[in-house]
Amino acid sequence: MDAIVKKPIRNSRWSREAVRDDGRAVVVYPTDRDLEIFGLLTRYRYLPSDYIHAFVGGSMSALSRRLNLLSRKPNLYLARPHQQRETADANHRRLIYELDERGGCALKERGLASPPKSPHRNFAHELMVSQIMASFELGTCERTNIRLITWPEILANLNTPEATRQSPTGASIPVIFTTHGKRYSVHVNADARPFGIERVIDGSRSYLFFPGIEADCGTEPVEAAGFDRSSIAKKFAAYTAIAEQRIYRSHFGFPNFLVPFIAPTRGRMDSMMTLLLRMTGGRGSKMFLFKTFPVLSSVERTPRAGGRMLTEPWRRAGFEPLILTE
User: Fold this and answer.
1) Three-state SS string across 243-258, please?
2) Same domain? 66 vs 139
């Protein structure tokens, strides 16, 4: 009688059960490349595997196998957020990873920073922010004459006011403005930390600065009845006041100020730009930049990992598109 050959049990892509070799759980120990991935996931909380690959390179299939091992028992250096399963095509998308507690400990053991995770309420929004900001960094990797200026570097710069450098909430911008006869006092907190880009073009060095980004998942109104609740119109009004009062200089020491708004669809972006034109009496604004990026639940697939947020033109209401690298 022929021997019965048992087929290996294939683990679900969503489980954390161990990968086994001859019945034994496969144990891995962090390599320098793994630590690079762990550090990447401290900068960007959630990233799909193709974004990770865009940073660390090598074979995509080999990286996928390694990420799989790092996220399974008994290793558990990485985690796959359960929220990604909620999309209809979840089984056909790139897996999304985040740093698990053991990965953070591995960084700390080697004297590398592993800041605690901040709480969040919207996984799709946090993922969108992470991918957009990762795209900015990937864009600087593609262009040797462009450098990303991070928030820690801004805080360490002597041109940044001392009060901002010492404040635990230095990224938050206080502003007072009046509209429709009502006075508002708010703190503007952009998505992601303030950042800048340094450009060297024809031997000349120049800088562009941003308070962060405004990543819109389509969950708040473009325009509300008033400014007592959050809306795109309220954000336009607050950022406009920051520019008019030059608070970007007094608070950050920035010589200029650009605010990127990223919408989930072309229609949503067009609605924002139309609103801005109406709010400015048809003049528009050079300061506000517009682009699209699909949310996790969108039927439109997320663009391939790359530097398009930096390298491709941004639209502006009332003005020609702006190319940040030129």
Assistant:
1) HHCCHHHHHHCCCCCC
2) no
